[in-house]
Amino acid sequence: MDFPRSRQYFQQEIEQPDEQIDLALSALYIAQEEYPNLDIFEYLNALDTMAFEIKERLPNQMYPLRTIQCINQYLYDDLGFSGNTADYYDPRNSFLNQVIERRVGIPITLSLVYLEIAKRIDFPMVGVGMPGHFLIRPDIAEMEIFVDAFNQGEVMFADDCQERLMQVYGQPVTMQPEFLVAVSKRQLLARMLSNLKFIYLNVQQLERALAAVERILLLLPDSPTEIRDRGLIYYQIGRWVAAVKDFETYLSQLPNAQDAPVIRRLLEQISKN
To answer: Where are the TPR repeats (predicted)?
Structure first.
């Protein structure tokens, strides 16, 4: 199958060691599949410009909290970036070019903008894959503060993260230490694509959902749940041979999975066609 050139560039970028992956470039290759005429360098330049503007405002000594305050003032007060609470599941919230243009997004894409600006001003930050609400934090030893890019760059401590988690799920949720662990660049990109996958599945845009899963599997090739989900999409669009292969792979990896009986029934149905 011939994939778009942007898919090929995406694959080349993510095949590098994780620390060498350019997050902004990778995210723009994701967007370019949806927007083929997208000028990637226009948006990289936009990030460069934002970082330059912030750097001009920074104090001589870059204290972490003061640096965060400068970024926040520029992004949220001056440029008007905000979390899209009005239409959270608009797919445009997951495309970096649209987030930069429209200045609205969801936690992970606003975090990506923040991370890329921080990188450009030599202020190391990392993504934090808290369930339901992506966060970022300074990559500084013994500094346990978190930044919520979706909520105007709010600075939080671990207890605040627990409260935010309960707000997201609308019920008591026990914070686990792994919820606040830094994620790799591949994991961040896979989470962005997972958001797109679920958005497209919910509106039955199966070809777009399939494109998202295919790119997740470039990042996480051995993920059994993604292999299963690709098989389910293949099944829905009538690509039986491909569906069978993915279902059999999934069952070989997780023969006792909770949904294994459902997958076996689907295999039986395909064999009758």
So the answer is: 190-223
**What would the two tokens of residue 258 be?**
């909770």
The predicted-structure confidence for 180-191, as pLDDT tens digits, reads as follows: 999 999 999 999
233: in domain: yes
**Cα–Cα distance, 251 to 259 (Å, whole number):** 10
The 10s digit of each residue's pLDDT in 223-238 is 999 999 999 999 999 9
**What's the helix, strand, coil split of the chain in %, to 5?**
65, 5, 30
Domain housing 248: 222-272
Using the Cα atoms of residue 144, residue 131, residue 122 and residue 114 in order, give the sign of their dihedral. Answer: negative
Would you state the structure tokens that stand for residue 47, as one six-digit string? 């990030």
Q: Are 169 and 156 in contact (CB under 8 A)?
A: no
Q: Are residues 137 and 254 in the same domain?
A: no
Q: What is the CB neighbour count within 10 angstroms for residue 262?
A: 13
pLDDT, residue 168, reads 83
Phi–psi pair at 86, nearest 5 degrees: -75, -35
Residues 161 and 228 grouped into a single domain: no
pLDDT at 1: 53
The confidence band for 143, taking pLDDT boundaries of 50, 70 and 90, is: confident
Q: Which residue has the tokens 């399939």?
A: 210
Contact 123/67 with Cβ under 8 angstroms? yes
What are phi and psi for residue 222, nearest 5 degrees? -100, 10
